[in-house]
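Recall the central idea of this unit: under ordinary conditions, the amino acid sequence of a chain determines the structure it adopts. In this exercise we apply that idea directly, starting from the sequence alone.
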Amino acid sequence: MKFLFVFLSSVLSVVLLAESSVAEQAELIFKDRCTACHLDDGHGLKSMKVASIAGLPRWYVAQQLRHFRDGKRGAHALDLEGKMMQSMTQTLDDKSIAFLGKHIQGMKPLKNRRTLKEGDSKLGEKIYARDCASCHGEKGLGVRSKLAPPLNVQIDWYLEGQFKKFSQEVR
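Accordingly, the structure predicted from this sequence is:
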């Protein structure tokens, strides 16, 4: 019985050490690769048109990082921000991408996401219900089975820019 206790304690210690090691590695990778544009809090820089990534689900973060790395996203000549992301992801392996996804998911999302003053909110709600809700969900929480990310953690000016890129077939 004592042997079993010692064995289980050892296994638990290794698991806890590995978990803290993953968190430390993820934080180091984030600081090295991401903070210059996404900032320490993951909220991004408007002047560079950089997304707020804090709180995005890790499956989405990992998918997008792989898409940038593999040239599936950011390939259009007019997608300057995408090109920047491609260059930042070229040397990331799948393990580092997984670590980053977990780290970013654990960050606190930006609270004040409404910054745009112009626009018609009623018309926006109608357009969202018609064109977006079937994939992103009624409340913008995202639908993983459709690979549609949550929109409720993203800042409005970034979403506006992405709408333009989609409509111009840049993204």
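The two ends are 60 Å apart (CA to CA).
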